[in-house]
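Problem 12. The chain below contains 196 residues. Write out its predicted structure in token notation.
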Amino acid sequence: MAREATITRTTAETAIAVTVNLDGAGRADLSTGIGFFDHMLSAFARHSRMDLAVSVEGDLEVDGHHSVEDAGIVLGQALGAALGDKAGIARFGSAFVPMDEALVLAALDISGRGQLHWAVEVPFGMVGDFDTQLAREFFIALAANAGITLHVRQLAGDNVHHIFEAAFKACGRALRQAVAIDPALAGEVPSTKGVL
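Solution.
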């Protein structure tokens, strides 16, 4: 059974379409209008091994906030839809990713209780065409809409590009572990409650 989904969302600020295939090869087809964000989503796709298509038309004449946050919302919804009832998934995942001087940990639980715990310290400003405040906003939206408890912790790093790239790669690798099918579960939901 294919674990994939396409979600679209249109508001007065953005028009977004996201397709995700949990069992892909890490291919990415990205057009967000924000070059650095495309770069981060490409790293996320490659390291999660999910095929990811993201198209964003946003009010970039204002700034990138609506485009990035709304992309997180729709990607989260698509992940949730692709996971279905979550039967047989490993559920938990974690990864440490170094990127030169930066080191970031991501740990997550596909719990149904969407929340982000973010311990990443970067200065306010821009990296390329990306407002540094928006990485947190993206992951808040992603976690809330996918029903994922997500911890992201910066353990080292000075270069903002390296820190964010390590964070996106770590989240991708942790998610790859968590969505993997565990044959030992024999299709059961990995929870004593019987649902996630």
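Discussion. The chain has a mean pLDDT of 97. Students who got a different answer should revisit the alignment rule from Section 12.3.
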